[in-house]
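Lecture 7 notes: from sequence to structure.

We start with a single chain of 363 residues. Read the sequence below before looking at the structure.
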Amino acid sequence: MESKIKRIAINTGGGDAPGLNAVIRAVVLAAEEQGWEVFGIERSYDGLFEDGGVYRLDRSTVRGITHMGGTILGTTNRGNPLRWPVTRPDGTVAYEDRSQAVIDALKDHGIDALVAIGGDGSLTIAHALFQQGLKVVGVPKTIDNDLAATNLTFGFQTAVETATDAIDRLHSTAQAHERVMVIELMGRNAGWIALYSGVAGTADVILIPEIPYDMDEVCEKIDARYHMGRRGFAIVVVAEGAYPKGGKPHFERKAGGQIRLGGVAEEVALEIFTRTGRETRSLVLGHLQRGGGPNAYDRLLSLRFGAAAVKLIRDGGFGCMVALDPPNVLAVPLGQAISRIKTVPLDSDVVDTARSLGICLGD
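Now the structure, written as tokens:
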């Protein structure tokens, strides 16, 4: 049966991740093989309501972008069309549902189907649009690797490499000054990056959201490290969402007055110094984990996801997300994909490995 698809669009939403451009390139090339036109939407859905915010993508547009970090379409984690902020005459802010406006704008541009690349927030929007009649397929994107419906998300492996490299570099300066170094990594509700890079980087302590920590256990491990050799030092890896037993995740006020998750490394470092007297420093790796080009694994996964998304559209698999189920890439319903996040199982092999190596997990 001949496909009725002639023109598709693609957008990227939420935080950036290494591999976004590789997905875009794969979608464009695979769609052109089907004889379709491809259009990019700038900054998630914002471009639909801006002059020049929707434009044609072709082979020349995506040439040489597979290895590049970021996204040529831009991205944003604001302006959710399901809760679009509108300023009232009195200065207060209200929220309205602009999902129909999104669907109408896509129709005005002659778009037959949308490839939405994003994490749980962006895919929740995509699912809502699908329920209202939009032909959409999703591509999972988050360096946190916390989407339960896929074995891995692109960008995660690169983020782990970046974090591991940072931990490696901290070892030499920690040993030289006989310090405790506390490094904070991304991971709001899931500690995948902290756990994987902490084990790979031979950290002494790894604190993740899944295991509330006891500072007595942490400090006991650190004291033991200092008694092991002539030049004692310790490396502590903390996910940004980690919190103490009986406590809550740490939030801090950022520039512009926004309250954001973070600051736990500084809090842990202060506790360690207060309890042990050891010279302690903290570091927040932050957006360095998102930056730079994807490694070979994430490039390949991104290209596979992009090509699979086009196949889904060709076969009418709307309302689904492409997912990795090794060794294959398959489709799962968007509703299932966003139903829950994927946290680190406490009985996982990597957790067992960390304990077997003597790494303190704070419990």
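The mean pLDDT is 94. Keep this in mind for problem set 3.
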